Amino acid sequence: MESSSSAAAAVAAEREPTVSQKEQWALESQVFHIYQLLYNIPPNSQAAMLELQRDSHMEYLVKGLLHLGPSFSVLDANRPWICYWIFHSIALLGESVDIALENNTIDFLSRCQDQHGGYGGGPGQMPHLATTYAAVNTLITIGGQNSLASINRAKIYSFLRRMKHTSGGFSMHEGGEVDVRACYTAISVASVLNILDEELVQGVGNYIVSCQTYEGGIAGEPGSEAHGGYTFCGLATMIIINEVNRLNLASLTDWLVFRQGVEGGFQGRTNKLVDGCYSFWQGGAAALIQRLHAAAAGSASSEVSDDEDSSDREEGQPSDDESSILIRRHTETEPLFQSQALQQYILLCSQVEGGFRDKPGKNRDHYHTCYCLSGLSVAQYSRSKDADSAPLPGSLLGPYSNLVEPVNPLYNIVLDQYDEARDFFSKAPAL
Amino acid sequence: MFRIRSKVKYKKTNKRRDSPPSAEIEMDSDEDVSTVLPLSQRPEWSDITPVPQNDGPNPVVPIAYSEQFAETMSYFRAVYLADERSVRTLLLTAEAIHLNAGNYTVWQFRRVIIEALNADLHDEFDLVEQLASKNSKNYQLWHHRRWVAEKLGTEAVSRELEFTKKIFLNDAKHYHAWSHRQWVLLNLGGWEDELAYCNELLEVDIFNNSAWNQRYFVITRHPKLGGIEATLDSEVDYTIKAILTKPENESSWRYLRGLYKNNMQSFVTNPKIPTLCLDVLTSKVYPVFALSLLLDLISNGFEPNQDLKNAVEAVVPESNSQGLDIAATICTVLEIIDRMRVNYWGWRKNNLRSQVAEGVANLSIH
Known about the structure:
Distance between the termini of chain A: 67 Å
Helix content of chain B: 55-70%
Largest sheet of chain B: 2 strands, antiparallel
Oligomer: heterodimer
Strand content of chain A: under 5%
Number of helices of chain A: 19
Structural class of chain B: mainly alpha
Strand order of the largest sheet of chain B: 1-2
Radius of gyration of chain B: 29 Å
Order of helices and strands of chain B: EHEHHHHHHHHHHHHHHHHHH
């Protein structure tokens, strides 16, 4: 860089670093130190350093299902979430737990199911949209007749209707907050259970469009700051309800790709630190955008699938068929993010002995374990011909044993489990 | 954590009420401890039969609750099921919330009781502030605070603005606190000093994207500033200055672009924007955002002069961009210097024609 160049550079050099800069630089030096270790060892040791520690992760996950210490009392209203984080992680690893533990989970979640519909954070708690999403996704991940049939679709539908808010969005629970999370969890659950209808969809698109910010990402509420979690929720919702083209996808994409930091991981917001959990929230959103691009390219070259006639469908009409085709029909396009860099961050900076964390210096937890593994899956399969075919050579970082299962990124459910549920609920009686 | 043996009074951390407000956020939970009787030993609760949690014979994700936690929640379940709205249940909800501020059922029942008793809403501020001093990243706490503020109306304004300000001293990007502050401004008012407050925060940390977002909120929603149209010129000047100070600051570039979100015509016709790009490119500090903005300008119909083209080509003199038009050259340069987004810039390059077509179409609409 020229030192004499401009007044701007001179002014920039004068000032003390700000809080944002200091935090960013401290993290960068920590992360680059870790990467230095990798680059300075021979290639065969590199593979060992990059290995996904399957056994220790399984040990950590199964232990959580069986016992949680007193400090988990602050998550006492999130127990279906803990189930989902653990079961989804196990499914991503391609593993399972014994039948008894699965049956215990089905039994426990049925105790969280409210008599008027929906699941609460624990037995006897009010039904809540987020824990309903977590419980339904857990039961789908467990799979099988008993598990899927334990979900009372009709009552969930009436719960969802009761949560519908005048803004077009949803309240998290009776008297609860209204935000983009609530829209996503409600619409995701309704879609996967095959109970999505006009009444539930009405106004959701308007609400989400009103949450897209000047930056391009989506905020939790109108006016708030663009944020990775809400961007995933908003984008996935808009795809499910078939209104995604109402978003400004160019600005959303531009914002999204800039969220991948020099560390390889994703940050949740502009000028914030990277965090392993955004590997999925941002990486999953990027995977959805990639599929939209592929679909657009497909239809532009008139390769639209011939078995689905969607031309006479009106905007706003729910059509999980279309979103399902979108997920299936992959992508010979390149991912919009650096897949290898993301995998490196997840494996070297988030992975610990049993579980994953936000960043170096933080503690592991089940939430980060779930979303780091989900992000790892999205990154590994970001270059593959079909949704469930093996990644193209060179897409996987580390040894081949690192390969995890593919997910349906709209719902963040492992693909095989999603397919089983879709089949099961498509045969379920209309409400 | 502490263990409670039977017949031993359990301990409860108590917040000091006399500490100065500014210290509240810093306070940790290991302050003075006092003892409270277990509920089963309090005479006023003797008529209630606690309801244990129905976890079933083989629960999964079982939590090893402390005795105090398990007992408090069992009494809570009993009164919640009986729908008892009384002073004692109001007090009980506070005890339960202190044990787990994430229990939305308890919070919701507390609101039901408050309404039934017509209880003093001002007590809720203390509760929320005590909890926020321990952990303020919790949806329930902020939802409750909003509910209280909504009930109190305009009298809550200054208190809420101060409360969020105090949070920002510790974490200037606190998502819940910003949402709360915006809700207060929109619904109860208090806009007077908000732009000055944004200036203040950006003065301290120009990389604070939450402050930039708040600035956008003020510019677009302030009832008396006249919206973006009235403030566009001064905002553009302010932002250009901020960009020239730190060209690597994405927040200011996004803000500048955002000012023109619905006004493509002025975006491509304001000479200050390409001048800014030229200044940054020739200063050679951090060209990515300047190139990206220039690409946006061109995609929307702007035609760069020779100086700009030369500046673009000078960023990576060795790049072989001969024969490419300027937009494609920008993409190529970005592919080289912004490796993390190499696929994105490649995709932009492949879609240039449709982007320009769309951009020009947009122009004719506005």
